[in-house]
Every structure is written in structure tokens, then in C-alpha cells.
Write a structure and sequence with these properties.
There is one protein chain. By secondary structure, this protein is mainly beta. Helices cover 12% and strands 37% of the residues. The strands form three sheets. Strands 1, 2, 3, 4, 5, 6, 7, 8, 11, 12, 14 and 17 form a twelve-stranded mixed beta sheet that branches. The longest helix has 11 residues. The radius of gyration is 18 Å and the shape is globular. Bound molecules: magnesium ion. The site of magnesium ion has 7 residues, from loops.
């Protein structure tokens, strides 16, 4: 099933995409995750709906760096011997069609990263790789937006990865039964219509099952946690000349079977941005 979240009659609702229509439900995100049965409240044309981030606010966003060989090469990094883990704060989460905002006083090197996002469906530790896919509730697309200047100058990633609005996800949450093989999905990004990244999840150094097993040796995975699985080659910092996003740019991340995540860049003039609730 393909779930989206959206506003309807003043409230947020989850709905199931059914062809050109959306079946509106009264389920909360936890209900979607636990596959609670539902009776549709209404049916709306998909074209009339403005989707929101489809996966609620997770306990944690686990990110994997340098998980595609060509991306290691373009950034001059040695391919890791084991998964490289970092995180983004959950206040960075953003909607499909949302604005990606930053202050030019804070960063001038904002980059895109198309990624397959895995949503964990049940709690687990010490998960064997052979059983890891059974812990997946579903998938969405993510853009691991990064302030490269902060990422490099800080020596560790978290500030440069965690600016408010720097983690758009969506447009749909696709249940795992609809994507039986997460290692064979086309993935791409387009900046103002120009293809910047074009690859397939088959090119991951560490596949999704390995990542889940590896993480769970160290910490508890909880239902709703999100795992960003790394980005392929073609990011702005790896290009010649380097290319970073500018005010007014449109950035699209597309993952096969999930859809297109479209966001707009807005560079603030230093005014305060709103508090994330
Ligand atoms: Mg990334």
C-alpha cells in the first residue's frame, strides 16, 4: 500500500492511494505502522491533495555515509570497511513541496543527496542479517540536504546535516510488501530539471539488511525509526566545478516505486526562522 499524509477539513489524515483517488482514514501514524484495519471516511482525488511528510516524527533518523562506491570516489573518501553512521535531528524533517531554508550568513554550500529511506516496523536488537528485512515497515524517499561548509569545518556531521528543513521525506510511505527487493530501485535527483544523480540501490556497498543488522548490534531500533541509506554519485560538492543550491532552485528526488519528492530552496536574509513544533 501507498500511504500519504495530508490536511483534510482542518485536520491531518492518513490516506491510501487507490489509482487516481485517495481513501481517507482516521488512522494515526502508529496505526499505519501497526497495520490497524480501517474503514475509509471518504475518497478524494489524488490530484487535489497536498501531501505532508508521510512518516510522522521518528525517535531517530539514522544516516549512512559513503554507501555508494562512486560517491566515495567523487568525494575523495576511502570506501568504509563498515557502515559509517551519523544522524540528523528530527527537527530537520520537511514535507514534500516544502521550502528548504537557510541563512546565507550560516552556510553558502548547500547540497542535495537523493536517498532511499527505510522505516523500521518493530523494535529490535541483535537482528541477524537473514531476518533484517522482516523489521522493515516500508520505504519513502529522502533528501539528506547538507551544508557542506559546516560539515567540513565542524569535523563531524551533525550541524551541517541538521538545519531546520534539511530532511524532506515523501511523498508516499510505501509498505514493504510493495517493495520486495529494496536493492533494485532506480534513484535519481534533478536540480531545476537537470539530472544530477542517477543510479540504482543495487550499487550500495552495504545493503539494507546489513545496515539494519549492523545498527542493531549497537543500539535499539524502534518502530518508526528512519534509516537513510546513503546517496549515489553526482552530488554538488563532487562535481567540477562544484555546484551548490541557490535561492529559488527546485530539487527533486525520485525513487522507483515511491514517487517524486519536490522541494524549493529559499535563502533567508538573516531573519529568524519559525520554531519547529
Ligand atoms: Mg546522505
Amino acid at each position: 500500500m501507498k500511504w500519504i499524509q495530508f490536511e483534510y477539513e482542518g485536520n491531518t489524515h492518513y490516506g491510501v492511494i487507490d489509482g487516481e483517488m485517495v481513501q481517507v482514514t482516521d488512522l494515526a501514524w502508529e496505526d499505519v505502522l501497526s497495520k490497524r484495519p480501517f474503514t475509509p471516511l471518504a475518497a478524494l482525488p489524488l490530484a487535489d491533495i497536498q501531501p505532508l511528510n508521510p512518516i510522522g516524527r521518528p525517535h531517530k533518523i539514522i544516516c549512512i555515509g559513503l554507501n555508494y562506491l562512486d560517491h566515495c570516489r567523487e568525494t575523495g573518501a576511502v570506501p568504509p570497511e563498515r557502515p559509517l553512521i551519523f544522524t540528523k535531528f528530527t527537527t530537520a524533517m520537511n514535507d514534500p513541496d516544502g521550502e528548504v531554508r537557510w541563512s546565507a550568513a550560516l552556510t553558502q554550500k548547500v547540497d542535495y543527496e537523493a536517498e532511499l529511506a527505510v522505516i523500521i516496523g518493530k523494535n529490535g536488537r541483535y537482528i541477524p542479517e537473514s531476518d533484517a528485512l522482516s523489521y522493515i515497515a516500508g520505504y519513502t524517499a529522502a533528501n539528506d540536504i547538507t551544508a557542506r561548509d559546516l560539515q567540513r569545518s565542524d569535523g563531524q556531521f551533525i550541524r551541517g546535516k541538521s538545519l531546520d528543513s534539511f530532511c524532506p521525506m515523501g511523498p508516499a510511505f510505501v509498505t514493504a510488501d510493495d517493495i520486495p527487493d529494496p536493492q533494485n530501485l532506480e534513484i535519481e535527483s534533478r536540480l531545476n530539471g537537470r539530472v544530477m544523480q542517477e543510479s540504482n540501490t543495487s550499487q550500495m556497498i552495504f545493503p539494507v539488511a546489513k545496515l539494519i543488522s549492523f545498527c542493531s548490534q549497537a543500539f535499539t531500533l524502534e518502530a518508526g525509526d528512519v534509516l537513510l541509506t546513503g546517496t549515489p554519485h553526482g552530488v554538488g560538492i563532487g562535481r567540477t566545478p562544484q555546484l551548490f543550491m541557490q535561492n529559488g532552485d527546485e530539487i527533486v528526488v525520485e525513487v522507483e516505486g515511491i514517487g517524486s519528492l519536490r522541494n524549493w530552496c529559499r535563502v533567508d536574509d538573516g531573519k529568524e526562522q519559525p520554531l519547529i513544533s
